[in-house]
């Protein structure tokens, strides 16, 4: 079945190649027989349950879904999914998933990674997968700490973070994963929270429907080495004033009785939070996740305060259509075969482009 999508610069054919499942599926069908081994109370359990519960919605055969992970607590995820999976090497999950998604377009490919795995040694692999717009979905668990190696500061830890590796406080300015993804021209960027299953599931739903790379940052509590890092977003009373829920096409308002809103500063062009009054109500921004420019989405991402997490946007910040890498690559291969025929690997290896090395 062929679906045609318009991407502004032309029309790209996106093929729906992933086979559908036969019969109805349930959450139980996606639970593996492996014992789940995370620390009791870890936020990973909630994310696992949400993903397992969501998978039947895809309507895909389990054999055509693949989870690829790197190294870290989150990267045990493939063991617990009754799908194909690969526990790969540190930081390289996006690269391995790129090869898989590009060569096997009949598969639904998901990446599970953590803030240390994805943003430290895996930083380049992540940004290049995003800019290429490969058809894969990346779940980035962010607990702002290295959990598997027992509590060192990570690329998302706040300045001054006291850990085993920074006993006098971290000096590094932290990454904002959402800002990083938007800067890499990612076509789908979202943020959600491990304990909000309804919201997490809705974000997964939108990401799965997206053609191209979708990155979801999931705030995830590490109750052993960084417990309470996101309490401001989880406590009902605090969250009312801290969480900015983004919904496409709706004014960006939050707080008790929606008394706060996001406006653009006429002097600097930056976004800021204000108390909404009759005089400024018409200045409150309406969220446009589908804007071709990532400028406003990036400005929204900068509202998150790395120290207090007050005024933190969650939801889909950006969802736009643009050419999908693996579709374009398949088109190039088809064109090459039509023009030149199938290649000969033996002839290529024994070809005339050789060099003599003189000692």
TrEMBL record:
Keyword Oxidoreductase assigned: yes
Protein name in the entry: 2-oxoglutarate ferredoxin oxidoreductase subunit beta
Keywords, in A-Z order: Oxidoreductase
CDD domains, A to Z: TPP_OGFOR (cd03375)
Entries under Pfam families matching the protein: TPP_enzyme_C
Biological source species: Streptomyces paradoxus
Domain Thiamine pyrophosphate enzyme TPP-binding span(s) in chain numbering: 71-218
EC code(s) of this entry: 1.2.7.11, 1.2.7.3
Superkingdom assignment: Bacteria
GO terms classed as biological process: cellular respiration
GO molecular function, one term: 2-oxoglutarate synthase activity
Catalytic EC class: oxidoreductase
